[in-house]
């Protein structure tokens, strides 16, 4: 289980401030949601956590290791699935799994891979090329390939976007189970909340700032019914609240 500490992180793209003084304390084995509208800074934060980019200011510690100084130690423990994953055109889905297993020196990975292909309903398509997959299937494949190596920290950028509602709910539930059973820390960026989602914690980002950083139980208590029938209502309620109120850390 890895504990993640984000300390006063800011990111600038030229003169544009994409993240402003973001601090988070994410206990190991928890399932966190980063909610925000387009351009809120979610992907930028995930890219910093994945060590795909460096912040302009501030620091990140993962399991006590600094992402700037201990990159080598951390890389094998973190998996990031971007919103548009890339694949090798000449390899089938199953051959991608073989490649990942070889690169990571995985032993006895075959049965685990079969189970993951079944879990994501891709077992009928495992000998097809990812280019022939739908966007949702491609995301599931990229996620499956990340899970094959059993990372300590799993970062998912907009996983629900390309999925149908049933698959969104299924994935939301699977992610919670992974945290519990595999002790994985999971951080998911999204602009929508599937109906059955039950994360441990929700962070709401708006224009690069944290407007809410609260346990899911407290979010549900404060915004009852926000998720079940109207997934967007929570975002609007949070934006309305933040117009005057101070943001809240719990
Ligand atoms: N490479 C870049 N160069 C310049 N500006 C960028 C770059 N990447 C992101 N931005 C800007 O930074 C802001 C935050 O972008 P980011 O992709 O982190 O937001 P997001 O919340 O993930 O949005 P989305 O839900 O649309 O993916 C946006 O205004 C975006 O235009």
Automatic annotation (TrEMBL):
Residue ranges of the TM segments: none
Pfam families tied to this protein: ABC_tran
Annotated GO MF terms: ATP binding; ATP hydrolysis activity
Source domain of life: Bacteria
Keywords of this entry: ATP-binding, Nucleotide-binding, Transport
InterPro entries noted in UniProt: AAA+_ATPase, ABC_transporter-like_ATP-bd, ABC_Transporter_VariousFunc, P-loop_NTPase
The protein's name: ABC-2 type transport system ATP-binding protein
CDD domains xref list: ABC_DR_subfamily_A
PANTHER family assigned to the protein according to its UniProt record, in alphabetical order: ABC TRANSPORTER ATP-BINDING PROTEIN ALBC-RELATED
Source taxonomy: Bacteria, Bacillati, Bacillota, Clostridia, Eubacteriales
ABC transporter domain residues: 4-232
């Amino acid at each position: 289980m890895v504990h993640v500490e984000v300390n006063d992180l800011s990111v600038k793209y030229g003169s544009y401030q994409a993240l402003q003084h973001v601090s988070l304390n994410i206990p190991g084995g928890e399932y966190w949601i980063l909610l925000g509208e387009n351009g809120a800074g979610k992907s930028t934060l995930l890219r910093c956590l994945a060590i795909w980019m460096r912040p302009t200011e501030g620091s990140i510690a993962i399991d006590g290791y600094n992402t700037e100084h201990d990159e080598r130690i951390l890389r094998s423990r973190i998996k990031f699935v971007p919103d548009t994953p890339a694949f090798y055109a000449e390899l089938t889905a199953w051959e991608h799994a073989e490649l990942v297993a070889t690169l990571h020196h995985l032993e006895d990975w075959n049965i685990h891979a079969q189970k993951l292909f079944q879990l994501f309903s891709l077992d009928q398509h495992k000998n097809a090329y990812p280019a022939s997959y739908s966007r949702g299937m491609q995301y599931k494949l990229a996620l499956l390939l990340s899970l094959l190596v059993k990372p300590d920290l799993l970062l998912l950028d907009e996983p629900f976007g390309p999925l149908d509602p049933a698959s969104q709910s299924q994935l939301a539930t699977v992610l919670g189970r992974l945290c519990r059973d595999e002790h994985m820390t999971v951080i998911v960026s999204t602009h929508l909340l599937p109906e059955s989602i039950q994360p441990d914690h929700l962070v709401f980002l708006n224009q690069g700032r944290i407007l809410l950083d609260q346990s899911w139980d407290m979010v549900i208590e404060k915004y009852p019914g926000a998720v079940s029938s109207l997934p967007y209502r929570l975002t609007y309620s949070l934006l309305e609240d933040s117009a005057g109120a101070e943001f809240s850390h719990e």
